[in-house]
Amino acid sequence: MSERQSLAGFDYQVFGKLEEGSRPVLAFHKTGGDENELVPLASAADPNAPIVGLRGQVVEDGKQRFFKRLGAGLFDEADLAQRADSLNEFIRAFVAERRVKPPVLIGLSNGANIIVAALYRGAPPLGAALLLRPAIPFKDARPERISKTKILVVGGMTDEIVTPGETMKLTIALREAGAHVDLSMIAAGHKPVAGDEAAIKGWLKRI
User: Fold this and answer.
1) How far apart are alpha carbons 115 and 187 in whole angstroms?
2) What is the model's pTM?
3) Cβ partners under 8 Å of residue 13, min gap 6
4) How far apart are alpha carbons 141 and 159 in whole angstroms?
5) With 70 as the cut, is the pLDDT of residue 1 above it?
6) Which secondary-structure segment (H or E) carries 154?
7) Model confidence pLDDT, tens digit, residues 67-84
8) Rounded-to-integer distance, Cα 21 and Cα 207, Å
9) Distance CA 142, CA 174 (A)
């Protein structure tokens, strides 16, 4: 593990050996997590990949997040759009500076939502995106064209925050934008379970 580093306004840590030409996994934590949270899941999904854990830039009630809210379940869409654009810039800068392949992104809840918002705002250089319990980021906006982007959406059948119906609507929106989207609905609520690891590992082997 490296010391915390900064690039394009984002703080991150590297777990494993990040070499030129490697395909890193960029991990985005849930509200209240940190850059270490998804490292075990990302490592289980791809044991040979270096993991880059990002830290949310916003603090709400002492908890790290990747964008602001106006209230429970109510996104600050202006802030989200700005931070999504910043994330796309970070990914482009990271790939160029480290001379690595387009990364795989994995995010849980708030972390998944910032990834989805970045996809809505444009197509960053991605190998794939793994979205655990993502929500629709913008009420009235449709995603930009993201042709051929490979995405796995993992929803919870008993999710108390993001309903299966919303998960399906998001999946359809991403498909209509040109992405190759697979949907896996597992026996889970909003929190991660063992089924998430199984769904991710099986999908990554096929892409």
Assistant:
1) 23
2) 0.96
3) 1, 2, 3, 4, 5, 35, 36, 52, 53, 55
4) 24
5) no
6) strand 150-156
7) 999 987 899 999 999 999
8) 18
9) 9
